[in-house]
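Let's practice the habit of predicting before peeking. Look at the sequence and jot down your guess about where helices and strands might fall. Then scroll down.
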Amino acid sequence: MPDLPTYEDSLHRSLRDVDPLAELEDIGLDAADGRVLAESIVADRDQPPFDRSAMDGYAIRSADLSEDAVYPVVGTIAAGRPATVDVPPGSCVAIATGAVVPSPLDLVVPHERSDRCDPVRLDARGLAAGYAIHPRGADAAEGSELVRAGERLSPVHLALAATVGQDRVRVRRQPRIRVLTSGDEIVAPDVDPLDHQVRNGNAPMLQSLVERIGARWLGHAHVLDDPDIVRATLEHAIDDADVVVTAGGISAGDRDFLPDTIDALGGETRVAGAAIQPGKPVRIQRLPSGVMIVSLPGNPVSVLATACLYLWPLVRTMLGRTTPLPWRPVELAADIRANPKRQLFRPARIDATGMAAVPVWQGSGDLSHAASTDGLVALPRQSDPVPTGRPVPFLPWP
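Done guessing? Here is the structure:
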C-alpha cells in the first residue's frame, strides 16, 4: 500500500485547477462586510484632499513666529468651510480640527499653547513648519489603490469605499455549500437519543464554519446508511452547490457508501487519505460538472480540523484570495507527544504569555477538550515529544 501524502501535498492536489468563481456581484456597502472584493477600491482624489488642521488652534506662518510677539486674529476657519480668509504676514487665523489650512500658512499652534486673546500670544517653542497639519495627499494620491482585489472586506474597507464615493462594491459570488451528515447512530439535537445514539453536532458546527470562511450555506441533510438514500441525497445536493461537504461514511466499513457513490457519479479522486491526525480518511473529489466533494471523517474533532485544513483553503481559492491561510508561529507551553507516521493537528489555547497550550484529549471524538481552544497547532512528524518552547505553526479558528 503506497504511503499517504503529507498535508501539504494533499492540499496541493485538492486545489489543482480550482479557479476563482467567475460570477461577480455589485452590492451595497450595507451588505458587503466580509465579502471578497473583486475590483480594487481606488482613491478618486488626494487623501486628504487639502492641507487639514489636526487640532483646534491658530494657523500661522512659521517664519512669523517670535518669542515675544502677539498676532492679530483676522478670522476663523471652521471645518466644512472654504478657506477664503486673507491672512496678512504677521497675523494668524483661528482654525478648527478638520478645517482647510490656507496657503501660505504652514503651522497650527494648539489652543492650549495660547492665551486665546485677540491679538493672541502663542507659545510655539519647539514647533516647526508642518506641526498639526495633515498634508494633502499624505494618506493616498489620486488614483492609488486603497484596497486591492482579493481582500475580504472589513469595516475599515467599507469606510474607505464610502470616502472615495462608492456606495456599492463589486465582489465575488460566494461559493454555495451544502452539507450532508451520515450515520444510523446520529439523531437530531432535539431528539432524546437511545443509549447507542448520539446527537448531531457536526451540522451546526459546519454551518458556522461555512459562514465564517465566507461561503454561502445552502442547508444540511442527514442520510442513513443506505446506498440508495445516499445516492439520491447526494444527487440532489450537487444540483445547486459548488461544494458538497460530507461528514462520516468514508471509512472502510461495510456501511460506508459515500466513496463508491461518488465514484459512480464520475468523481475524480484527488485525495484519498492523508498522513494526518485527526482526519486520516479525508477525501477530496471533483465531479465532471466541476462540483467539489469534500468528504470529512465523522468524529467531531476530525470534522473541525479537516474543515479548516481543506475546506477553508478551497473556499479561499474559489473567492480569488491569493494569500495563504493565516498560520503563524507560536511556542509550545509544554512538551507534547508527536507521531512519527502522521502529522498531528491539535486544538490549542493561546495562554496569557502567548504560548500554545494543548489540552489533554481522548481522541477525535472528544469535542469537549476543544471548547476552550483558539485554533490548531501543527506538530512535526517525529518519535520524540515536541519540547516546551519549540515554535510550531498555529492556525486560528476562522
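How did you do? Helices lie at 7-14, 155-163, 202-212, 227-237, 258-264, 300-318.
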